[in-house]
Amino acid sequence: MADLEIAPVERVGTDAEPVPPLEPPTADDPSRFEFPHTEDAAPSPTRPLTIAQFTDNYGPAPSGLLYAVQFLEREVLKAGHRVLLVAPEAKGPNPLAGDPHRREIRMPSVPIPGAGIRLSLGRDLEFRLAQLVADPPDIIHVHGLGGVGLLGMWVAQRAERPLVVTWHTDLEAYAEHYWHLGPFLNAAYRMFAMRAESKPWAKLRKLRFKRPRRGGAQLELLQAASDMLSTADLVTTPSDKTGKRVLELAPDAKVKVVPNGADPLPQRKPFPRAKGPRLLYVGRISPEKNLDLLLDAFELVRDFEPNAELMIVGDFEDTAQVLRRRLQRAARYGGVRLIGRMPHDELATYYGSADVFVFPSQTDTQALVLHEAALCGLPLVIVDPELNLVVDPGVNALVARPNMVSLSQAIMAMLRLLKDDEFATAAANRSRELAGQWTIERQATEMLGIYTDLMAGRAVALSDYLQPDLGRPRLSGRLN
Fold first, then answer.
1. Are 149 and 143 in contact (CB under 8 A)?
2. Could you read off the pLDDT tens digit of each residue along the chain, which spans 480 residues?
3. What is the rounded distance in angstroms from the CA atom of residue 133 to the CA atom of residue 154?
4. Is the dihedral of CA 435, 426, 337, 273 positive or negative?
5. How far apart are the C-alpha atoms of 454 and 451, rounded to whole Å?
6. Three-state SS for 406?
7. Coil/strand/helix, residue 239
8. Closest listed residue to residue 186, CA positions, set 237, 122, 109, 128
9. Is the CB of residue 372 less than 8 Å from the CB of residue 365?
10. 132-135, long-range: CB within 8 Å, 24+ apart, which pairs?
11. Pairing of strands 380-382, 397-399
12. How far is residue 355's CA from residue 276's CA, in Å, rounded to a whole number?
């Protein structure tokens, strides 16, 4: 096994092995689910691998995580391998759905109000687990913590397959906003703890759950995350920031930083210009994105730039009621233009019409929208100094403190700097230069190399320079 190399597989004409479309299986007919590879087989240099992507965030709302998973799927398919996607049920367009070398398993799920995602709470779990263990994929790649992510962890353990976990989320920050999900995820975690049981659901039904308490629910989320991260053969993160957070949660985790890639968007005709300078935010409209801070700062900016406009691109209809009402009020009276959700390929219309991209979030782990804005040549104003892959302070970006006075002053300072044509040109060039390093192809090459090393039993080079923040206590054990 030590000398095994798994190269991209070339498909030529009818020699490519056909993969029949996956039909929804039923509980009384498990034979309808089959993986397309033969049972004998240790992997060979030419046999396509089946890479299973397990994610709890795959629509219906667009997000950086959704695009990151789809971009990776696309590159795995281009390399001649196969993809199995396991995700909660969710409506919405999928550009990869017609590929004959790709299959989906959609788990029954419920919507999470204001979060733009759906959560799988366990129905069909035992059935799907039995199917996947009976004929497992070659690599299990889990994207984050949730019911589907835990399913991937169980499959990897029972089928003795390599487990890669990509940690996209600053869970400690998100737990503050979505603490009410803790009891559901804790139930799934307890099932993982019972994985040796023949019928875990029977035992789980006998458990009594306490009414969720805010701090307790957050701690349960973090402890479940610690267990998943420690279990993985490898944890990849999109940034140093996230790698440090992983080591704070799970000091024994094997961590490698692999930034998500972004390519230039298709060119589109820019949106008509505003009367004054236009600020732009693109992304999910949810409490953890700190839109309240952006709105507060923009009110101060308007005191000095009455014609300034703040354009917000994202689904404001499905956000928390308090935030939605504030956005709608700002759109009526405060110079805010709400665009709503737009297809990803149409975003260049809005990036191309803006003067400055403003990003108030402190919970993002990489923020692909920063990369997209930079690829369009936009200067940036941010509040999180750890989102630094496409940021050169003072050249193409300014970093504010996370309060409305500092953010408004940074925006005004950037608008003044941009009146100098030489600075504006240098900022646009630097944004494109930095963002151009982090391509989807670069990310996919690294991930395919990781899959190859794990299948061959080789050690993966880790990002051993990461140092978690000093003085932060490690999570250990479970609270009863």
1. yes
2. 334 344 444 433 333 333 333 344 444 443 334 444 434 444 444 578 999 999 988 876 777 788 889 999 999 999 999 999 999 887 766 788 889 999 999 888 777 655 556 667 666 777 888 889 999 999 999 998 878 888 899 899 999 999 999 998 766 655 555 555 556 566 555 655 555 455 555 555 555 555 555 555 567 677 778 888 999 999 999 999 999 989 988 999 999 999 998 999 999 998 998 899 999 999 989 888 999 999 999 999 999 999 999 999 998 887 888 999 999 999 999 899 999 989 889 999 999 999 999 999 998 989 999 999 999 999 999 999 999 999 999 999 999 999 999 999 999 999 999 999 999 999 999 999 999 999 999 999 999 999 999 999 999 999 999 987 756 555 554 443
3. 9
4. negative
5. 5
6. helix
7. coil
8. 122
9. no
10. 132/52, 132/159, 133/158, 133/159, 134/30, 135/33, 135/34, 135/35, 135/39
11. parallel
12. 10
Q: Are 216 and 435 in contact (CB under 8 A)?
A: no
Reading the block at residue 85, the tokens are 């996607």
Beta strands 234-237 and 50-55 are unpaired
Q: Which residues contact 179 (CB under 8 A, 6 or more apart)?
A: 212, 214, 217, 218, 221
Q: How big is the chain, counted in residues?
A: 480
Q: Which two tokens stand for residue 329?
A: 């009020």
Structure tokens at 46: 């030419």
* DSSP assignment of 399-442: E--SSHHHHHHHHHHHHHHTTSHHHHHHHHHHHHHHHTTS-HHH
Beta bridge partners of 309: 278
Q: Are 447 and 337 in contact (CB under 8 A)?
A: no
Residue with tokens 């409506």: 91
- How far is Cα 118 from Cα 60, in angstroms, rounded to an integer? 8
Distances (CA, A) of 241 to 113, 321, 385, 450: 28, 31, 10, 21
**Cβ 414 vs Cβ 229: under 8 Å:** no
CA-wise closest residue to 99 among 21, 13, 8:
21
Query: What three-state secondary structure class fits 467?
Result: coil
Question: Where do we find the tokens 């590929």?
Answer: 99
3-state secondary structure of 176: helix
Query: Kind and range of the H or E element at 106?
Result: strand 102-107
With tokens 């590159």, the residue in question is 75
Prediction pTM value: 0.80
Three-class secondary structure of residue 246 per DSSP:
helix
Give residues with Cβ within 8 angstroms of 13, minimum separation 6.
none
Q: Are 348 and 265 in contact (CB under 8 A)?
A: yes
- Please tell me the distance from the alpha carbon of residue 298 to that of residue 313, in angstroms, as a whole number: 16
Domain annotation for the chain: domains and CATH numbers: 13-261+442-456 (3.40.50.2000), 278-435 (3.40.50.2000)
